[in-house]
Amino acid sequence: MEPPPVRSLGRYRIEGTLGAGAMGVVYRAFDPRLDRLVALKTIRHELFETGERASLMARFRNEAQAAGRLSHPNIVGVYDYGETPDTAYIAMEFVAGRGLDLLLDASGGPVEMYTALGWFSQLLAALGFAHAHGIVHRDIKPANLLVTAHGRLQVTDFGIAHVESSTLTVAGSVVGTPSYMSPEQFSGAPADGRSDLFSAAVVLYQMLTGQRPFVGSSPVAVMQQVLRETPRAPSLCNPALPAAFDEVLIRALSKDPAARFQTPAALQQALTDAMGASGSAHGDHEIDRTVLVTAASVQTWSAAPAAESSRGDCVGSPAAWSTATLAGIEARLASQVGPVARLLVARGAARTAELSALVALLAPHIPSDKGRRQFTDAFADDVLTCATHRATPPDGSHFPHPSVEETQAAALKLAVYLGPIANILARREAARAASLPALYESLAITITNEHDRARFRRDVGLQ
User: Fold this and answer.
1) Edge-to-edge order in the sheet of strand 97-99
2) What per-residue string of b and e applies to 438-462 under the rule 16 or more CB within 10 Å gives b?
3) pLDDT (tens digit, 9 = 90+) per residue, 248-294?
4) C-alpha of 257 from chain center
5) Residues with catalytic annotation?
6) Is residue 255 annotated as involved in ligand binding?
7) Mapping DSSP to helix (H, G, I), strand (E, B) and coil, where does residue 37 land?
8) pTM of the full predicted structure?
9) Where are the strands (E) in 182-311, listed by range?
10) How many C-alpha atoms does 344 have within 13 Å on its Cβ side?
11) Residues 84, 147: one domain?
C-alpha cells in the first residue's frame, strides 16, 4: 500500500513534487507566513532505518548551516530548517529554472562557447564567495547547477558541503559523483576549494565539447581514469574551440591540486587570457570556426559603398542601423578577417545599437594587434563623438575618465552576465569612454538579455 501523499511539513503547504534524489524528495511548497513559494528538500524516511539516523541528520543540518551562511546571486538561498517525527526538511529559494544536466542532455552536443563561458563565470563567482566563507561544496556537477530563463546560473545542494569548522566530514570518507569527483576525493584525502575547481573544470569541459573528460562502464573505470589518465585536449573533441583553451582546461584537471589553479579568480583570469590569445593567434580559418551563429540572428542587407561614413549611428534600435553604416563596418572588418565579417557584423548589430559597443564586440575577432588598432582607429572619431555626447552634463563640464581600478571593477560586474569577454569589452570601452557613466552605458548595451541589462544598470548606479 502506497503511503498517503504529503500535504504539509511544518508551516509549509505542499503543492507538488519537483524531484527526488539520493537523500530525499524535493517539494514545491507555499509559505503562508511570508506569502512565497519555496522548495522543500527532505530526507527519505526509509533512510532512518539504516542505523545512520544521527549521521544523516547531522549532514542535513550541515547543509542548512553551510548554505544558510551564503547570500549570493549565484547560490540558491536557504530560508529555514525544520524536523518532524518522520523527516527533516530545508526550505530553500524556489528557482524557476532547469538543471544544467537537463540542458546538456537536450543540446545533444557542445553549448555555444560564449553561453558556456558566461555560465561558468557565474559558477566561479559562486565558488569564490563560498570558499571565502570557508565552505567547500564537494559535489559540483550539472545536476546541482540551475539555470533560469534569464540565463542566471545558481548553485544548489550543499548537502555534502564541508564546513571547515565542522567535524562531520572526515578524511577517508568518499562522497561525490564519480564523473565529476577530484582525484583526492577518490583517494579519501582532504578536499579543499581546489577540488571544487577540478569538478567545475569537468563541467566546463562537458559544456564546451559535449562530452565528459572521464567516462567508463563503471564507477571503478571512471575512478581509474580520474586518477591516472589525462583527458583529450578539448579542441580535439570540438574543433570550433580556440586551441588556447586546451592548456587552461588540462591544467585545471591536473591530478595534483598544487598544479591546478588555486582560486576561482585565477581560473577566471586564465580563461580571459586564453580568449585574448585566441584572437591574436588564429588565422582567418580559425576565426571562422569559432563563430557560432543561429540562422535567426543573421540579418542581410544590400551592398553599399564601403567609404560611406558610420557617423550618426550613436544610439538607436537595432533596426535603425543604416545599410551604408553596416556595409562600411563590414568592409573594414573583412579586410582583416575575410568573408566571415558579414556574419560577425550581423550578429553584433543584433546585440547592440551603439557604434562603440559594436566596434568593441568585433575587434577581438581580428587576429593581429596591428589589425585591431587599424579597425578601432577607423571609427575612433565617430565613437568619441558619441561618447562625448553621452557623457557631457548639461552645464558643459566633464566627468573624469575611468581609472584602471574603475575599469577592472566594471569588468567584474559585467562578467557575471557575459563571462571572460567582459574584460576585453571593458578595456576597449574604457579607452573610448569620456566618463565612468559613459563606460557603464556602453557596457550595459552589450548585454542582450533585457532583465540582466536592467540589473547591471542598477548594480552600477545608472538607474
Assistant:
1) 97-99, 145-148, 153-155
2) bbbbbbbbbbeeeebbebbbebbee
3) 999 999 999 999 999 999 998 888 888 776 554 444 333 333 332 22
4) 23
5) 139
6) no
7) strand
8) 0.60
9) none
10) 27
11) no
